[in-house]
């Protein structure tokens, strides 16, 4: 029988970031049902880092996280974790009024935003279709996240601290044995004093398995495709392209153009696959907004973005319990907030003061407590 202080259920970015921070102080195991870590949401992310465009609490988490991304601990990674991409936000003629409102709001936060004429937007993004863009602005504060390096940094650090990371260990049953949880998994039996639910789209079913009331974590499908860029267009210099109402977005990906219809379709937790209609919408937006004629889709996929009812992450002990901890509901920002939420969860699990960065941002951890969903 393998015994641990904490067993984290879920080998995605949430569970592994927590293992990295917590394993410096507690014995930790991460259990993952799949053959590979980061298989579902983490491995299918668009890997974008932004400081705005989310709820205020998420933006504060991003500001806290950026310090880690910019200055990771010694030995964590051998490449920078962020690469500045920049973003161009575009609007068609029927959305000029909306564009002006968004531009005014964004300029409240930064002076770095540069308004672009349609001609200047076309010069900065040469694939934009002439006549489609009626208004645009450039925001330098978009970055690509080196997701694989980030994930491997968490894994290496957790293992260096003594954590065990166990793939193919789906939880089959759980029961109390005195002060401990006894877990029967596909890879054998283990015990833990505390269980952390970092199971992403499966967070509510996992809670039910432990006799804990679900809190309404709903997975949503998001689709992406990649298509070839025109000859002579350098993917390394292209910014991200965002439609003003987030009807779609595009960005370079592996030398091609990634496009998403920004769909958010509620679905059951599964190894989700893209629907033909969503693939078609992604291709439609490419042809509508750019000069690219989509004759071939190089790749298509879908990922899961799991949300709580108020779209904020859920971090904390289940009400009235000291043996079941939630780390779920990160939506589409689990990777960019992983350093901040990993540190917060570790502090709460050890009953220690929250990191000073949270106090600096006036960010109350109770904003993320599962108690807010208690009826």
Offer a quick outline of the entry.
The protein contains nine helices and 20 strands.
Largest sheet: 9 strands, mixed
Mean pLDDT: 94
CATH secondary-structure class of the largest domain: Alpha Beta
CATH superfamily of the largest domain: FAD/NAD(P)-binding domain
> What is the domain tally?
2
Q: Gap between N and C termini, in Å?
A: 38 Å
Shape: elongated
Helix content: 25-40%
Please name the defining characteristics of this protein.
375 residues; alpha+beta; FAD/NAD(P)-binding domain; D-Amino Acid Oxidase, Chain A, domain 2; 2 domains; 8-stranded mixed beta sheet; 26% helix; 28% strand
What does the model show?
With 375 residues, the protein is of the alpha+beta class. It folds into two domains: 2-76 and 146-216 and 310-373, FAD/NAD(P)-binding domain; 87-140 and 219-307, 2-Layer Sandwich (D-Amino Acid Oxidase, Chain A, domain 2). 26% of the residues lie in helices and 28% in strands. It has helices at 13-22, 56-70, 96-107, 118-124, 147-160, 203-209, 276-289, 338-349, 356-360; strands spanning 2-9, 28-31, 48-50, 82-84, 87-91, 114-116, 135-139, 142-145, 164-166, 171-177, 180-185, 188-197, 218-227, 240-243, 249-253, 256-260, 265-266, 299-307, 314-317, 324-328. The radius of gyration is 21 Å and the shape is elongated. The model has no long low-confidence stretch (mean pLDDT 94).
């Amino acid at each position: 029988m393998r015994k641990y202080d904490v067993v984290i259920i879920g080998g995605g970015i949430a569970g592994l970031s927590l293992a990295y921070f917590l394993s410096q102080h507690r014995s930790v195991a991460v259990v993952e049902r799949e053959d590979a870590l980061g298989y579902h949401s983490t491995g299918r992310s668009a890997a974008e880092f932004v400081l705005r465009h989310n709820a205020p609490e998420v933006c504060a988490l991003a500001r806290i996280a950026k310090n880690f991304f910019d200055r990771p601990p010694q030995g964590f990674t051998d490449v920078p974790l962020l690469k500045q991409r920049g973003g161009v936000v575009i609007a068609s003629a029927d959305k000029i009024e909306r564009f002006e409102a968004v531009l005014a709001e964004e300029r409240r936060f930064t002076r770095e935003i540069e308004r672009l004429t349609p001609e200047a937007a076309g010069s900065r993004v040469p694939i934009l279709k002439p006549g489609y863009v009626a208004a645009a602005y450039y925001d330098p504060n978009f970055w690509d996240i080196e997701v694989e390096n980030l994930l491997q940094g968490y894994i290496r650090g957790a293992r260096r601290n003594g954590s065990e990371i166990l793939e193919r260990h789906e939880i089959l049953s759980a029961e109390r044995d005195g002060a401990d949880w006894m877990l029967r998994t596909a890879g054998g039996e283990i015990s833990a004093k505390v269980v952390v639910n970092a199971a992403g789209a499966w967070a509510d079913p996992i809670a039910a398995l432990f006799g804990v009331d679900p809190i309404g974590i709903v997975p949503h499908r998001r689709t992406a495709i990649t298509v070839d860029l025109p000859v002579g267009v350098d993917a390394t210099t292209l910014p991200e392209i965002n439609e003003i109402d987030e009807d779609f977005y595009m960005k370079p990906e592996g030398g091609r153009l990634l496009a998403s219809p920004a769909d958010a379709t509620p679905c059951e937790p599964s190894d989700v696959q893209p629907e033909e209609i969503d693939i078609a919408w992604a291709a439609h937006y490419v042809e509508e907004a750019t000069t690219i004629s989509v004759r071939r889709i190089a790749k298509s996929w879908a990922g899961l973005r799991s949300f709580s009812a108020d779209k904020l992450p859920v971090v904390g002990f289940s009400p009235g319990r000291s043996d079941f901890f939630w780390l779920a509901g990160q939506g589409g920002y689990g990777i960019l907030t992983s350093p901040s939420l990993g540190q917060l969860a570790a502090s709460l699990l050890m009953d220690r003061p929250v990191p000073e960065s949270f106090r600096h941002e006036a960010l109350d951890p109770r904003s993320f407590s599962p108690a807010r969903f208690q009826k």
